[in-house]
Each structure stands twice: as structure tokens, then as C-alpha cells.
């Protein structure tokens, strides 16, 4: 689908934006990780409480905070819903496309909002294993695509804005 | 499912709020019933030919087109209706001015000066045609309130400069530029410089006289003052030659080819009458309500920044506020759910995920620009509308701040 | 006295004829009440933002814009609404096609082919931009009925050719060109040739399928089918890149910058529905009345010439007749006094005192072109309208011939 | 006044177009002269009955025929009104501007219609003196401005159309 056409939000996005689930800091979180930055205009923070039960790492609780557009808030909220009660390996494999689908299909221009949500989740999972000093064999050594995209967004914000400035012709004041 | 059905779903889910207040007048205004009434005869009574046609129906069209031109000419002090050119939008009027001038002078080369906060329909044609035709475009910086420093301006204008376009009122932050002063500087360096001003957001909101201002071309747009869309105007001082970037008319005819949008012109004429009758009352009204809205928000919401100047050198209808720690697109959606309609300069509302170039040009950081909201008040807003907005906005910001991952430190 | 007052005087002197029949549908059609009704909500109910705005009002605008695009796309067999671009007129759509293509391919050079009877909004941008950007424009001649001879066409198309624009129906003489045949010839020489057709006078009057025709771009205009002025459409096949001659929008956004004329788009949508409901009935009606008018004139007036073809390859609504020994402008005025509104290809109705280039291109002599009158019939005309015209026209021509200094020899 | 604006006709033009005076051939005309051509799209023919009374050449009757636009017809008609009963010297001095003024002001694009009327009149006056073999001292030997313009229009029509064809880009068919 072309990006020339501004696709509207699905009712689902609007619904979750209205009534987000699992909002706010989690007192006894095992890990807290975020992706994005205020300068980008979008930043998702995930709080996970993880318990190891029968050698499986289960997400007992997940909450979020989000600075960003309505899609960003909805993506963050739905990802907490999707991972609650699930084990980390399952959570690791959630894709941005699944999130978009859960939201009834995001407009192309908003794909990055769900990439950000996946990025924050992956970062939290890595942080957890780092914290407990383990590395399960299913966890890739190298950063995967979505993690790279998030890093890129964070790192590239300066470069990106610089090139956009040229496109938009914003000159820095003397 | 088709796109339109998806939107219908969204609209159904959104619902129609019991109270609605529309502040998104920068993007488009509504058209009051009197204006629609003024258009109807030109749709309905019978067919309407274009003005050069030699029959009764064509002459009736011509009559209203001339009446509108006469009204516009007298409202800006133009010498003759020959100086009034209709296009279909302010965007097109700006293009006719900029591209039209560069195309007509394509053997000249030289420098084009615009401000860094011009509307994109000035900046983009300047750069596009300059690039093709071999001119050079310079963007003059503005200060933190959007004003051009005359000393800095002086430094940019030189004998190579052929065309300058500086808007009268900035569409986002309401800065009222001192055009006369800039014209004087420009013409003292080189009297042949052609000076265009984009008055799309000034016309109907302040007194304008093209001769007192000394400008050579000026842009006006109908839908900015509750006229119908589909009419833009370029004032072109006698003696200025343009070659329209849109072709299809013999050169002896009007500059913008195609049939005039006669009903829309009739509606615009009515909208001008409405704006200029009780002009002072209208201006005071929009200003008072704007000030009330500003105070109401400032008193009830922490951590806000006013974008643009405060006081007399701000357009009477403009309020632009950055709400820190929250993102503007989310604010527009949240407010929409409560029937308040605004727009934002946030990256998330733009197709390139880049915040408003105007806000960046006045030195706002990205995180400040992201939370910006633009309100425009009009003579049609009531006290009650403002009270409602002041009731809703703090709650909306509170809720989004409670969600936000950024907190004041 | 102001211009508008002078026209009022003229109109008062002219008076309103007790019966009126409007045939000047080439220049502009009237807009029926249903269409005006369809527009009203988008003026009145509330303000309307532009389609990419993220609030209820903007989404309502988006809904009708998409509905219109979906309807247009399905009516011409377009694959996606992405291929439908709104402008403010057919003139602008033609400019977007021609200038947009040349600007986007300005490093290419090459040859542009148009027919010698194209609308000026095709010919002029082709020549203007070709001249600036270094392309070459060739006008293919037509025969005495306005048809392009495929053999001659073949001779013009070569591997240098980059763009071809041939209209589907000629606006003055109603010639229905065999576009499919010309596309096949062009693409067999060079499959990369981009083929544009101006269907402003074809849409709503015959079945059109862009894929069956094989065209890459196609122009439509609202006011040609009793829609409001202020909407043109360019169909742009996916994969064709254009750079609009009008700038002001980020390149990722729509091709024609400026806010959409949402109410006019809503009206156009209604006009399309009206044209395509009872499509066959509508076409037969305009054709039958056209034939009746033609016969009525031929039977009652000597020394007339039909301009353009007769039969199936003429548009169903078009009648163009040269009345010898009298001048067309005088005919339009004389008929106007009796409430019949038409236009002429005479030199005296044009701003350069040169007769219609279309009539000259089909080989009409000046004195033949001077007396030409264009009638267009519509589904809204009644038998009675035609009877009235047949009653008035012979008398009008008789009177003017009695004045004329030229007599049949 | 600029030519960019299409000025409408005055009520006077419309009135005379509706009810032209002095229409049609004159049986016993002294001179019959025309100006313009069918190819130009405008042609005025004047019929004058001239009588010499007390050594003054008086126009006893004047009629016209006109092929051209409404302004052309009105200009031809009004010129016959303006000269009826007048002597030829008076008639010679009538200017196209006077005709335009009598018509309530012609649109600039229609000036040539009244130039044509004056041209036809001057041609008829010359023809009369040529016919009777006289040349009054008030009658210029050389063609005056308006006569030249008419000649130009007649002669230049071919050249003019050729150059207009280039402007309009009409190609001659092979
Ligand atoms: C300052 C300014 N210039 C130009 C325009 C473009 O006018 P329009 O929307 O009629 O194309 C606008 C409005 O968007 C504006 O605010
Ligand atoms: C064949 C053709 N092309 C283009 C146009 C221009 O369309 P518009 O009047 O909408 O500018 C017209 C109408 O005048 C036309 O008949
Ligand atoms: S957070 Fe900016 S587009 Fe979603
Ligand atoms: S005769 Fe052609 S304009 Fe008057």
C-alpha cells in the first residue's frame, strides 16, 4: 500500500488510546527499559515483572509509559497485553507486524511506533538476562532487525534531523 | 475494506461529541450560511459561462467577478481591478508570484530572499524554480519570536537580489512582520527589487494598504476568512510581468488559466463583506477570546511555552502553545474525542515525521515543537466555546502526561 | 462608473428573456440542486480541516475525499485510489500531466507529441516547458473531421518520443479519437512512451477504461458533467513520476499542493453518480436532442456547414455549425437576446482576434470559422428547449444575414 | 485602461445592434465603398447619396451593411446616423474615438470595429471626389492614420494570420 495516502487509525487504536491497559510505573519491576527519545518525538518505557517458574521465565506483570502519538500509546499498551503471562522466549518472537495487526492495521507512516514497542520489549528481555548473568540459546547474540532500527532511530535522530533540515531548508540561526 | 469505509468505522467509534469547538482555522475554516447563500445563485439559477463569453449568462458571471475584484481592490488600496488576479488557492497565488516572477525573468538570474518561516508554498516554488532556472535562494533567519532583524536583513539584500517574499503574518506563530520597514531597506539597496508578501493570514485581520506597505505583490486566500475554498488572490502591481507556471490561456488574458470559479468568488465576496463590516468588533472579539483562552490555559496547565510574540505584534486570532512532556498528535486526538479541534506542529502529524520548520526556525527544540498546538479564534466563537476549551484542555493534558514516559525533572 | 456597474447596465438593458436555453456547456455547466445539496454539509455543518489532520472534522473530510476517489477510480477502471489526483480544474490536471512529466524528466530531453486540436491547456504547457527544459514539441495534424490518421501518426512517433498527449474527445467539434489504436502504435515503437489523454469532454459521456485504452494519464473535469467548478482530476498510473509545476507540499504528499476543495469534491461525487445512473438513458437523450437540433437547423437554414464528424465517432452531446455570411459573436449576442446561450469559435470572441485553432486545423477557412457556433446538449435539456432553439435560430440568422455585407454569390 | 480585462458592451451598443438604423443597400447611392474582408471576420459597406447644395457636398442619405460582431454592426449604424445631413468635410473629420464615444465607449478589443467604420467612410469620400474629378483642399493627399490602419488590416490579414498561426501553433496540414 502506498504511503501517498494518509490512512486513518483503526477503531482499535482509538479505543486503546482512550482506555490504555497496564498503564504506569510498576513498583516491583524486574526490568525497566525504554526505546526512543524525546527528541524523536516518541519514547516507550516498559516495566516488566518476571518470575522464573519451572525453569521458564514468565512475565507476571507488564506496564508501560509512552510519549508519542496515539498509535504509539496504543502499541505500547497492546504489547503489554500480548506479553502478560507469557514466557520471555514467546515474547522475544513478537514482531512489529503482529502488533500492527493486533491494532487493526497501522497506517504505514505509523509502523515505526510498533517497531519502537518491539524494540523496547527486546531491550527489556536482554536487560533481564544480562542482570541475571545468563544467555539462553534462543536469544540471538547479534542485534536483530527491530533492535537495530530502534538504535538507528535513536542514533540517527541527529543525522536524520540534519538531513531533514536540509530538505526543509531550516537554517540554523547565527 | 475500502479506505472510506475504514474512516467511517473510525468516525463511528469516535462518535459526535455533544459540544464541539473548532479552532483549526489555519487548515480550513467553516463557511457560514450567508456565504453559502451568496454562492447558490451562481450554481443553481442557471448555467454560468466564463467572463469573456458574450451572452447574458456570461455577463452575469462577469458582474460578480468584477464586483469581487472591485471589493478586494478597494480593501487593499489597489489602483485598479487589473491588479487583482484570481487563482484557486493561496498556495497557487504564492506560486504565481514566485514561480511566475522567476519564469518571466528567467534570463536574469540573481538572488531570491525568503524568510525561514514562510509558508511552504513560498519556500518550495522559490527553491524549485530557482534550481531549474539558475537563481539562488537565501532564507533569512528570524529571532525567537519570528521577527526578522532589520540589521540582519540589510546584510542579506544586495544588488543581485531580484525578488523578496516575506509574509505579513506567520500562519503558525502569528508574528506580524514589519513589512514597510523591510520594503524600505530592500528598495533602498535596489529599487528594482520586486517585493511579495504572503498576506493569507493577515487579510481580514488587520488593515492592509499595498501602497502604504510598498509591496509589489500580495497573496490572499478565501478560506482563511470563512470564505469557501477554491479562491486565492494575487495582487500584482501594474507593470510587474509574470509568466504563470500554469499554461492554457493566451497571454493577453488573465494570468491563471481555466474558468473562474464564479460561485466561490461570489462566496468570497460575501465573506469579505462579513469580515470588514464591524471590522473592529470582529478583531477585538477574536483577540479577547484568544487572550482568554491563553490565560485559561496558562493558569491551569503547568509547563507550557507560548510560541511566537506576545502583544500587539501578534495576529489577533493566533495562539500557539507547546505543552511539554506530551506529544501534539496525541493531544489533537484526545481533544477531538472531546469535540475540540486543533492542529499540531508535531513531527507525528507531518508526513515526513519532522516538526514544523517554523518552530525549529524560532529555536524551539524538537521536544518543544512536538507538543505544540495551534488554536485560531474567530468572530464566530463564543465565550462559552472558550470556557469549554479551558475546561477540557487541562484534563486532556493531565491524562496524556499521566501516560507519558517523560516527566518534569 | 465601475466595471461591475457597467455590466449591470448592460444586463438591465438586455433583460431576462422569458424562455432560456443554455447550450454553452463547453465553457461551463450549471450545477443541479442535488449536487449543491451534496456540497452543503461540507460548508455548513462545521469547519472542515484538510484530510491529513487527526481529528473528527478532518476525518469526515477524508471520508468524502476517499469516497470520491473510490468512485472515480472504479468508474475508469483505475487500480487504486492512489492513482487519482485532485487538482482545481481540468486545465490544472492537464498542466500537472504535461508540465509534471517534463519537469520530472528534465534530464531526459526528447520529443513530445500532441495533436493540433488539443485544448490549449495541453498545447501551451507542452510548448512552454519544452522550451525551458529543452524538449521538442510536435503537433500531429488531423484530417477534415479532426481525426488523426494512424499512418501519419506512425510517421511522427519515434524512439526519441517521451510523452504523447491526445485528447479522447475534442471539445469543439466532438471528434472521438481512437485512443487505443494510437496507444498501440506509440507503445510498439517505444514501450516507455508515456501516453496522456485529456478526457475532460469524454468522461461521463462514454465508457472509459484506462486499462483497455492503455493510457498512463488521463484528465477529467468536474464542471463538464454538471459538477461544481473547482475540481479537476488527473489519473496517474502507478509508477509514473511527476513533479508538479505547483509547489508547496512535501513530496511524499499529494501531487497538487494546497487544501483539497472538500465541498466541491463532495459535489463532484454526486455529479458522477447522477451521470452514471441511467447512463444509457442520459447518453441517448443528449444524442437524440443533439440530432434533433441539427436536423432542425439544417432543415431551416441554408448555407451551413457541420464542423467535425457525423455519426458514431462524434461525441453524443456536441453540435458545431458554421453559419456562412454571418459572424459568430454577433450570433451569440443575437441568440442571447432571445435566451439562447452558445459560444463561437469566431475571431471576434477571442482575445487575439484569431479564430479557433481547432477549426483552422480541420481546414476551415477563416470566413467559415468566423460563423461557427457550438451547442452542447445535456440530459437536462427538454424537447421543448430544442423546439424553442429551432424556432429562434433561423430567425436570428436571417436577421443577421439581412444586415451582412457578404451575400451568397 | 488595460486590455487584460474584457470590458463588456455598453447598453447603447446592444440597443443599436438590436435596432440598427439605416440598414441595407441604397438604390440610388452616389458611392458604395467597403472596408475589411470576410477573412478578417469584419467588413463594413457604406452607401452614400451625396448632393451638392450651394457648393457644399451634403450626405443626403447613408446606409450600411455589416459583417462582423455586434460592435461592428453598431459602429456602422451609428456612423450613418452621425453623417446624415452633414457635409463631406465634416464627415471626413469624424474620428474612430468619436464613434466609440457615441457608442458609450467600446471595449479596447473592439476599437478596430470603429476604425473600420471610419475607414469605410473616408474611402467613400475619396471615391466620391475621384468620381467627380475634384480634390478639395481639405482632403489630405496622403492616406491618414485610420485609412492606413484599415489598409493594413486588409493587407496584413494574411501576414497577421500567419504570425498568429505561429503563436497559436496551427500547422498547415501536409
Ligand atoms: C501564510 C499562508 N500562506 C499560504 C497559505 C496557503 O493558502 P491555501 O490554503 O489557500 O492554499 C496558507 C494557508 O494554509 C497560509 O497560512
Ligand atoms: C478537452 C478539454 N480539456 C481541458 C479543459 C479544461 O478544463 P477546465 O475548464 O476544468 O479547466 C476543457 C474545458 O474547458 C476541455 O474541454
Ligand atoms: S510517535 Fe510519532 S508517529 Fe507515532
Ligand atoms: S468585427 Fe471582429 S471584433 Fe468586431
Automatic annotation (TrEMBL), chains A, D:
Q: Which GO terms describe its biological process?
A: iron-sulfur cluster assembly
Q: What is this protein called?
A: Nitrogen-fixing NifU domain protein
- Which InterPro entries did the record assign? NIF_FeS_clus_asmbl_NifU_N (IPR002871)
Q: Which domain of life does the UniProt lineage start with?
A: Archaea
Question: What GO molecular function terms would the record report?
Answer: iron ion binding; iron-sulfur cluster binding
Read off the Pfam families from this record: NifU_N
> What does UniProt list as this organism's lineage?
Archaea, Thermoproteota, Thermoprotei, Desulfurococcales, Desulfurococcaceae
Q: Which organism is it from?
A: Ignisphaera aggregans (strain DSM 17230 / JCM 13409 / AQ1.S1)
Q: Where are the transmembrane segments?
A: none
Residues covered by the NIF system FeS cluster assembly NifU N-terminal domain? 9-132
Amino acid at each position: 500500500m502506498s504511503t501517498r495516502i494518509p490512512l486513518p487509525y483503526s477503531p482499535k487504536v482509538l479505543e486503546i488510546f482512550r482506555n490504555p491497559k497496564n498503564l504506569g510505573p510498576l513498583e516491583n519491576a524486574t526490568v525497566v527499559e525504554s526505546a526512543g527519545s524525546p527528541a524523536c518525538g516518541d519514547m516507550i518505557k516498559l516495566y516488566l515483572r518476571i518470575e522464573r517458574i519451572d525453569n521458564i521465565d514468565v512475565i507476571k506483570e507488564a506496564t508501560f509509559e509512552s510519549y508519542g502519538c496515539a498509535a504509539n500509546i496504543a502499541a505500547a499498551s497492546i504489547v503489554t497485553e500480548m506479553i502478560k503471562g507469557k514466557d520471555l522466549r514467546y515474547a522475544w518472537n513478537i514482531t512489529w507486524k503482529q502488533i500492527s495487526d493486533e491494532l487493526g492495521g497501522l497506517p504505514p507512516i505509523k509502523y515505526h511506533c510498533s517497531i519502537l514497542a518491539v524494540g523496547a520489549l527486546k531491550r527489556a528481555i536482554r536487560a533481564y538476562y544480562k542482570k541475571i548473568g545468563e544467555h539462553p540459546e534462543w536469544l540471538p547474540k547479534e542485534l536483530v532487525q527491530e533492535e537495530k532500527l530502534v538504535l538507528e532511530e535513536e542514533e540517527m535522530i541527529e543525522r536524520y534531523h540534519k538531513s531533514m533540515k536540509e530538505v526543509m531548508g531550516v537554517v540554523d540561526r547565527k | 475494506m475500502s479506505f472510506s469505509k475504514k474512516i467511517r468505522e473510525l468516525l463511528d467509534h469516535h462518535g459526535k461529541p455533544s459540544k464541539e469547538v473548532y479552532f483549526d482555522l489555519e487548515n480550513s475554516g467553516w463557511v457560514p450560511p450567508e456565504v453559502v447563500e451568496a454562492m447558490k445563485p451562481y450554481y443553481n439559477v442557471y448555467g454560468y459561462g466564463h467572463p469573456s463569453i458574450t451572452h447574458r449568462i456570461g455577463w452575469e458571471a462577469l458582474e460578480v467577478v468584477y464586483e469581487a475584484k472591485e471589493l478586494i481592490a478597494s480593501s487593499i488600496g489597489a489602483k485598479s481591478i487589473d491588479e487583482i488576479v484570481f487563482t484557486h488557492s493561496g498556495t497557487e497565488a504564492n506560486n504565481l508570484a514566485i514561480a511566475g516572477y522567476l519564469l518571466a525573468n528567467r534570463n536574469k538570474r540573481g538572488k531570491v530572499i525568503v524568510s525561514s518561516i514562510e509558508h511552504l508554498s513560498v519556500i518550495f516554488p522559490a527553491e524549485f524554480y530557482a534550481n531549474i532556472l539558475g537563481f539562488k535562494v537565501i532564507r533569512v533567519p528570524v529571532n525567537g519570536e519570528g521577527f526578522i532583524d532589520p540589521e540582519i536583513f540589510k546584510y542579506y539584500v544586495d544588488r543581485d537580489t531580484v525578488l523578496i517574499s516575506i509574509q505579513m503574518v506567520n500562519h503558525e506563530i502569528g508574528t506580524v512582520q514589519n513589512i514597510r520597514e523591510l520594503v524600505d531597506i530592500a528598495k533602498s539597496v535596489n529599487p528594482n527589487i520586486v517585493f511579495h508578501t504572503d498576506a493569507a493570514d493577515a487579510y481580514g485581520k488587520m488593515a492592509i494598504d499595498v501602497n502604504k506597505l510598498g509591496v509589489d505583490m500580495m497573496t490572499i486566500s478565501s478560506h482563511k476568512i470563512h470564505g469557501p475554498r477554491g479562491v486565492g488572490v494575487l495582487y500584482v502591481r501594474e507593470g510587474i510581468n509574470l509568466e504563470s507556471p500554469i499554461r492554457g490561456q493566451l497571454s493577453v488574458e488573465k494570468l491563471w488559466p481555466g474558468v473562474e470559479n464564479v460561485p466561490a468568488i461570489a462566496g468570497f465576496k460575501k465573506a469579505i463583506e462579513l469580515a470588514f463590516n464591524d471590522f473592529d468588533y470582529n478583531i477585538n472579539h477574536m483577540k479577547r477570546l484568544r487572550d482568554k483562552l491563553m490565560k485559561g490555559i496558562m493558569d491551569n496547565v503547568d509547563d507550557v511555552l507560548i510560541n511566537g510574540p506576545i502583544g500587539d505584534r501578534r495576529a489577533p486570532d493566533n495562539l500557539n502553545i507547546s505543552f511539554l512532556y506530551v506529544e501534539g498528535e496525541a493531544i489533537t486526538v484526545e481533544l477531538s474525542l472531546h469535540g475540540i479541534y486543533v492542529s499540531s506542529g508535531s513531527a507525528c502529524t507531518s508526513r515526513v515525521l519532522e516538526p514544523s520548520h517554523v518552530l525549529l526556525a524560532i529555536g524551539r527544540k524538537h521536544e518543544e515543537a512536538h507538543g505544540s498546538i495551534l488554536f485560531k479564534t474567530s468572530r464566530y466563537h463564543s465565550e462559552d466555546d472558550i470556557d469549554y476549551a479551558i475546561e477540557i484542555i487541562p484534563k486532556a493534558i493531565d491524562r496524556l502526561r499521566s501516560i507519558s514516559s517523560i516527566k518534569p525533572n
